[in-house]
Each structure stands twice: as structure tokens, then as C-alpha cells.
Design goal:
binds adenosine-5'-triphosphate, binds magnesium ion, alpha/beta
Length: 556
């Protein structure tokens, strides 16, 4: 039925046009594109539309309240649908130009963050644009959903997967191959815990960073392609380093490497040699951590000279990348991998930001789910640069305190750098006060009614004709006082339903019901498309792992 990508995209465009024209059409998505998507759609929206006809505001109920929403932002450009307002059922779209100012999604576990993320990526896939999704859970469903989206839009060949828990059904990626030497070195530094307030550890970090920068600069200058396996050998073998020194053409990179090696050289009767023990003291820790990525399942994904996945290319070409980070087992290696990928995004963003405007992607989405788990310090710059590279970041996390574990002011950095905020239900202990504060206050009039009453009776008994009087008085006062209170109270944030969210877009606030895609019952499970990659003609593979014996016997 579908001949290829162009047909699928044409169908998509028709459907998107219909959906954009009327909010009622959103409910008809199950029929889209007739017969192909099956029951993919949002029947639930139609129900909410009917209900909303009956109710308007209800700010007082403890549950099921309906807050007044602001008017939608007027814009004619492209945008993504986020949800329908609970009060008037207005369709709320986020214009791409605001999306590029980034969006934070916050809410407790199981309330709809990933569901909304999938819905956003669905629209992005359907309109033929690119995205990157870092998922901190092993959730095969999410992967299969995204693969299904790519399939029905005829874009299967544009979807890439990084999955270290299932490397045979994933693509290859080499996170140390691309970028300037200092970028690659700082990417690798994510493997070592931060050394704040620890001068000894800080010295060690700096030495390791210096060594890595020098080695990677030499590798790049000599046109050698390398991977984690090669780096771990280089950091542990004097022979390997001397070999690299000989390979490196004369120039600043070679000089830097020679000077670096010189500090470990000692004179012996036979001449000079590198004091391996001293070198290992300086670099051993780093070498061990790097070696971890060269072995087993990690190695299958990362130990490649011509990786299928190159982040800059994915972003520039508007392709799609799903990264599965198996962080559930508190696996530090997986978290470190997440950090390295985020660092790689940083390098890619910096590179793309420098491209002429016409060569930047149109609107690329990077959805960083459970971002608190793998993000590192210094990511604030990423937000700033991403905007000018047309990359919309969507970090999602469970609470502000989760972010503050990265650094004390990290939550502030995220809040300040995101134009849009989508708050789902907060957990009891997740301090929704901060979210309520961000959503802002509103002025309301408080009415006070006071009632007073008095009665009196008097009689003059001395008179021969006694006179008596009775009186009755009463008063009612009504006063209005202007008070400031939260637009959405912390209690309301705690009491929201699944799939309900309060969104801030700049200064405007919306109380939304977010859509959920109903996938067909039997989605085929994902099967990777492997790409045949070639080493560029002007480069060579270092292949130190194959020559390991040579280096070992020499050092013995
Ligand atoms: N818009 C929605 N309408 C109705 N139900 C929803 C909606 N969004 C989510 N849900 C329900 O909530 C469940 C959990 O959603 P989701 O996985 O998106 O949560 P999450 O916030 O990403 O949780 P976690 O932090 O654990 O990853 C869904 O399986 C679905 O049953
Ligand atoms: Mg989730």
C-alpha cells in the first residue's frame, strides 16, 4: 500500500493538515492513515471533548478540578500539539520557535511524561524531522513504539538505536572518535567522579585530562582512527605510546606528546625508557574505566572504527536516534555512558551552531528522559548553544530535588533555560511548592461578609403611664480585598490525574489534558537495520588491540 517514504510523508502531511484544522480531528487519528495505523489514536480525547462541553471551571474540587487557561499563542508557523485545555477544549500548540527555547517536563513516576514525549516524537517523525531520545529505562515497549512510528511513516532507514543491553539488535557508536582533542578528553573525564573539594583527586583529574588531550591530538594528527580498546592500551603501555609517537607527523601534536612522555622517561644503562609504574600511577584509574567500555556488550557497540551512528550527522540530516540506558541496576557504566552521550551532543551542537544558517537542521528535538540520572555539570551551555543550532531540548525529570543532586543550583539552571514548562502530578514529597512558585501568582478578590445584630428593650416604670420601647438593629457588611495567591496551588499539583498537566509557555498558563497514543495490540518488535560503513580513504584504523601481544611482550 505504501510505496516508499515519499508516499508515507504525503499521507502524513494530509493527516497533519486535517489535525491542525480542528481539534475534533485529533480524535479521528485512529483512522489515520486509513488502514495503515490501525488503532493508533486518541479515543480518550474525544471523551474529554464531550465532557468539557458540560463543564467549564471548577477550581475548588480537590480532584478533577478545571483551571482557567490562557488563550493560545497566536502564530502561523509550524508547531507541535501538546494537549487540549480542560476548560474550553482549546487546542494548544507549541510553536517551533518557542520549542527551540526548550521545554522542561516534570512529574512523579507513572503520570505521563514519557507518554507525552512519545506523542511529541510521533509528530516529529510524521513531519519528517529528526529527534534523539535518551531513555533511562530498559523499556522495549518505548523502543518498539518509536520503531513502529518510523515504519508507518516510511522512515525505517533513518532510525538508529544505541542499546548496550542488546548490542546485536542495535547500531554501533564510537563516542570518542569525533570532536576536538579537548572535547573528547573532557567527554572521557565524565568517567571519573567529580573531584570538588579534593585537591589530590583534582590533581589526578588534571593529569588524566592532559594525557588524554595529548594522546588524542596525536592520534588525530596521524590520521588514525581509534576506539576505547586502543585508548585503554595506550594508557597502560609505554611501547604503545612510543609507537604512537613515531607515527605522529612532526608538528605541535608530536612535540606535545614527546614532552608528555618525557616526564616519565628515566635514564638506564641501555638508554632511556618510560617508567611504566609512574605512568600507571597517573593514568591507571582512567585506563581501567576506559577498558570497561571496550569489553563485552559495551565493546560490541563501541569498539568500532567506522560507527553507524555519528551524532552530528544524525542531527544535521534530521534522522532519528533512540538511546536506551540501562540505569535501573544503578549501573554506573550506563550512567557514564549517558554523560558521554550528552557531552557528545554538546560537541555536535557547538559544531552545528557554527554552520551557515542554511545547513543547520530545521527543528531537531532532543528528549532527555530522566535527565537527572545522567546529566553532568556544565550542561547549562548546552541549552544556550542548542537554541541557535535549532535544537529543541526537552529534559524530563521527576522532581527538582533530583536535579539539585547534580549541583546545588542545577534546577535553577534548567528552569532559567527552559521557556516552556510542563508539570504533571507531583509526588507527596516532591515539593510542588517550587513548581507553584514558577507557575506564578494571580490576583483575586476575596469577599468578606460580616453580619451584626442588636436588640434593645427599655421601659420607664416610674411614670404613671409607663412607656416602653423596643428596638431591633441589624447590619450586614460586605468587603472585597485584593489578595495574591498561587495560580495553581501545591495541593492541586499533587492532586492532578494521569495525563493531566499544567503548562507554562512563556507567561501563559494552560491546564491541559495530554494525548496518549493507542498503539495496535501487536506491534512488531524492533529489528535493527545494520548499515555497512567504510573507513574513510584518508584514515587508518589503529588496531592496537590486535597488536596487543607485541606491546605486552615488549613491556614484560
Ligand atoms: N495522557 C494520558 N491519558 C491517560 N493515561 C495516561 C496518559 N499519559 C499516561 N497515562 C498513563 O500513565 C502510565 C504511565 O505513563 P508514563 O510511562 O508516560 O509515565 P512517566 O511519567 O514517564 O513515568 P516514569 O517516570 O515512571 O517513567 C501510562 O501507561 C498510562 O496508563
Ligand atoms: Mg518515563
Amino acid at each position: 500500500m505504501i510505496a516508499g517514504r515519499m508516499d508515507a510523508l504525503a499521507l502524513t502531511a494530509i493527516a497533519a493538515g486535517v489535525a491542525a484544522a480542528t481539534p475534533w480531528a485529533a480524535g479521528t487519528l485512529p483512522a489515520w492513515p486509513a488502514g495503515i495505523l490501525g488503532s493508533l489514536g486518541m479515543a480518550q480525547l474525544t471523551w474529554s471533548q464531550a465532557m468539557a462541553k458540560l463543564r467549564q471551571y471548577d477550581e475548588d474540587s480537590r480532584e478533577g478540578f478545571i483551571l482557567p487557561s490562557d488563550d493560545p499563542v497566536e502564530h502561523n508557523g509550524p508547531g507541535l500539539h501538546i494537549g487540549l485545555t480542560t476548560d474550553k477544549n482549546t487546542r494548544i500548540n507549541m510553536p517551533d520557535i518557542l520549542g527551540q527555547r526548550h521545554t522542561a517536563i516534570v512529574g512523579q513516576s507513572g503520570v505521563g511524561k514519557t507518554t507525552l514525549g512519545e506523542y511529541i516524537l510521533w509528530q516529529q517523525t510524521a513531519r519528517g524531522r529528526g529527534w534523539l531520545f535518551i531513555d533511562a529505562k530498559i523499556d522495549r515497549d518505548t523502543r518498539d513504539h518509536l520503531a513502529y512510528m518510523a515504519k508507518v511513516t516510511g522512515r525505517e532507514d533513518e532510525l538508529y538505536i544505541i542499546d548496550v543491553s542488546d548490542p546485536d539488535n542495535a547500531n554501533t557508536y564510537n563516542p570518542v572518535l569525533h570532536g576536538d582533542p579537548d572535547e573528547v578528553a573532557s567527554r572521557l573525564m565524565n568517567l571519573i567522579p567529580s573531584a570538588e573539594n579534593n585537591p589530590g583527586a583534582d590533581h589526578y583529574r588534571q593529569s588524566a585530562n592532559h594525557a588524554l588531550t595529548v594522546i588524542i591530538a596525536a592520534l588525530q594528527a596521524s590520521g588514525q582512527l581509534y576506539h576505547f580498546g586502543d585508548l585503554s592500551i595506550l594508557l597502560q603501555s609505554d611501547r604503545a605510546l612510543e609507537n604512537l609517537e613515531r607515527m605522529t607527523p612532526q608538528g605541535p601534536e608530536r612535540r606535545a606528546l614527546s614532552i608528555f612522555l618525557d616526564q616519565f622517561r628515566t635514564r638506564t644503562k641501555e638508554g632511556t625508557r618510560i617508567d611504566l609504574n609512574r605512568m600507571k600511577q597517573t593514568l591507571g584509574g582512567m585506563a581501567g574505566r576506559i577498558a570497561l567500555f571496550a569489553q563485552g556488550k559495551f565493546g560490541k557497540v563501541f569498539n568500532v572504527y567506522a560507527p553507524e551512528i555519528v551524532l552530528t550527522e544524525i542531527i544535521r540530516k534530521g534522522h532519528m536516534l533512540y538511546v536506551s540506558l540501562p540505569t535501573m541496576g544503578k549501573d554506573t557504566a550506563a550512567l557514564n555512558l549517558g554523560k558521554m552521550i550528552v557531552s557528545d551532543i554538546r560537541s555536535a551542537v557547538a559544531y552545528i551552531q557554527d554552520l551557515p544558517k542554511g545547513e543547520r537542521p530545521e527543528h531537531f528535538i532532543a528528549l532527555l528522559d530522566e535527565m537527572g540520572a545522567y546529566v553532568m555539570e556544565g550542561v547549562g551551555r548546552l541549552f544556550e548553544q542548542a537554541r541557535s543550532a535549532n535544537i529543541a531540548l526537552i529534559p524530563a525529570f521527576q522532581s527538582f530535588s533530583q536535579l539539585n543532586r547534580v549541583s546545588p543550583d542545577f534546577a535553577d539552571i534548567v528552569i532559567q533555560n527552559t521557556w516552556n514548562k510542563i508539570f504533571f502530578k507531583f509526588g507527596a514529597k516532591d515539593s510542588p511548592e517550587e513548581a507553584a512558585e514558577i507557575l506564578g501568582k494571580t490576583k483575586r478578590f476575596q469577599r468578606t461578609v460580616s453580619v451584626s445584630a442588636n436588640q434593645g428593650e427599655s421601659a420607664q416604670y416610674l411614670r404613671t403611664t409607663p412607656q416602653s420601647s423596643m428596638s431591633d438593629g441589624g447590619g450586614m457588611g460586605e468587603s472585597w480585598r485584593e489578595v495574591e495567591e498561587f495560580r495553581v496551588t501545591p495541593d492541586q499539583l499533587r492532586a492532578m490525574d494521569m495525563g493531566q498537566a499544567v503548562m507554562m509557555m512563556g507567561a501563559r498558563m494552560y491546564h491541559l489534558r495530554t494525548p496518549m497514543i493507542n498503539y495496535p495490540k501487536h506491534i512488531p518488535s524492533f529489528k535493527v537495520i545494520k548499515r555497512k560503513m567504510k573507513i574513510p580513504a584518508d584514515k587508518q584504523a589503529l588496531n592496537f588491540e590486535e597488536r596487543l601481544n607485541e606491546f605486552l611482550t615488549a613491556t614484560a
